[in-house]
Design goal:
- This protein has helices spanning 19-32, 43-48, 82-94, 106-117, 142-163, 178-187, 202-214, 231-242, 262-280, 300-305, 312-321, and strands spanning 6-11, 36-40, 52-55, 99-104, 121-126, 166-171, 191-193, 220-225, 246-250, 286-291, 294-299.
- Helix content is 42%, strand content 18%.
- A seven-stranded mixed sheet has the order 3-2-1-4-5-10-11, with helices on both faces.
- It starts with 5 loop residues before the first strand and ends with a helix.
- By secondary structure, the protein is of the alpha/beta class.
- The protein is elongated.
- The longest helix has 22 residues, at 142-163.
- Helix 1 runs parallel beside helix 9, helix 5 (142-163) crosses helix 6 (178-187) and helix 7 crosses helix 8 (231-242).
């Protein structure tokens, strides 16, 4: 018998392809355990507004292939206050929610941590395209987002080559450079500017472009991470300094959307199921993670204290591959 009878599930922070697969994994697994599921709309904001619905197996039919999140998502300033957190815990108790699955990033997990401190069993599932959660090697949505970026870069390269220009392509990731590095390697970019490594030495970029142009390179792709920003103004400065036509493209929120990849669907489904299994055992303050080929879980306090950096070996390999 499960140690909890009713659980809630919410998505919080930025949406990510595969969140619906995780929701489906939560609901369908809970049904197998005889656990009732409450869907909480619009993240912590919806919890405070008591936007809570009953869910069953039919509620999650035909959603595994859909991007975004059927539960919607929002940010909530009120929940960041101690009063908001106490109110949220009381609302959970009012609706009989003994356990909560939170699908989101670090900020969402800090919310789960606060609710757990108020007596609500909480388990986090990593859902963010940024791949910036320190305890896990995989986050829901990254695979789809980086493939979306790669496909867009391939298309831009075609027109960049036709016009013999330099293209600066800005990808998402906040202050984490994983999408930038992966898409740079996958697309054969000439340079990548990562928040973790970029020293803002624009002259070095200009010198490199001039040297490559002189050696016969007629077009150039530079991937710029969102955390660095300023792609448009950088393009203008580079064109003025090099004489090479330079254009900036900000891929933006297109990277959040679209049907999730097979990997995102499968991993998200397993992580959602794993979260329910933990709650059914009466566990709390856990984060589901993927580590060394296994699905594991970490204490939420431990997980939030971890740090993460771009793998130096991957970055150095990119540098070796650049022409």
């Amino acid at each position: 018998m499960s140690k909890v009878q009713t659980i809630g599930v919410l998505t919080s922070g930025g949406d990510a392809p595969g969140m619906n697969a995780a929701i489906r994994g939560v609901v369908r697994t809970a049904m197998k355990y005889g656990i009732k599921v409450k869907g909480i709309m619009r993240g912590y904001a919806g919890l405070l507004n008591e936007e809570i619905i009953d869910m069953d197996s039919m509620s999650v039919s035909d959603i595994i292939h859909r991007g975004g999140t059927i539960l919607y998502t929002a940010r909530c300033m009120e929940f960041m206050t101690p009063e908001g957190q106490e109110k949220a815990a009381e609302i959970c108790r009012k609706h009989g929610i003994e356990g909560l699955v939170v699908i989101g990033g670090d900020g969402s997990f800090r919310g789960a941590q606060k609710l757990a401190n108020h007596g609500i069993n909480a388990v986090g599932v990593p859902g963010t395209i940024d791949l910036d959660i320190s305890c896990t090697e995989y986050t829901i949505g990254f695979d789809t987002a980086v493939n979306t970026a790669m496909e867009a870069i391939d298309k831009i390269r075609d027109t960049s080559a036709s016009h013999e220009r330099c293209s600066i392509i800005e990808v998402m990731g906040r202050n984490a450079g994983y999408i930038a590095l992966w898409s740079a390697i996958a697309s054969g970019a000439e340079d990548v500017l990562l928040p973790e490594r970029y020293d803002y030495n624009e002259q070095a970029i200009i010198d490199s472009l001039i040297e490559k142009h002189r050696s016969g390179k007629t077009h150039h792709i530079i991937i710029n991470a969102e955390g660095n920003g300023h792609s448009t103004s950088m393009a203008k400065r580079i064109e003025q300094a090099t004489g090479i036509e330079t254009r900036a493209t900000v891929l933006g929120h297109m990277q959040r959307g679209g049907s999730p990849s097979c990997k995102d669907r499968v991993y998200a489904s397993i992580m959602g199921a794993k979260a329910v299994e933990l709650l059914s055992e009466g566990k709390t303050k856990r984060i589901v993670a993927y580590k060394n080929g296994d699905y594991v879980d970490f204490d939420i306090d431990e997980a939030l204290s971890m740090t993460k950096d771009i793998p130096e070996e991957q970055y150095q390999i990119f540098r070796k591959l650049v022409r």
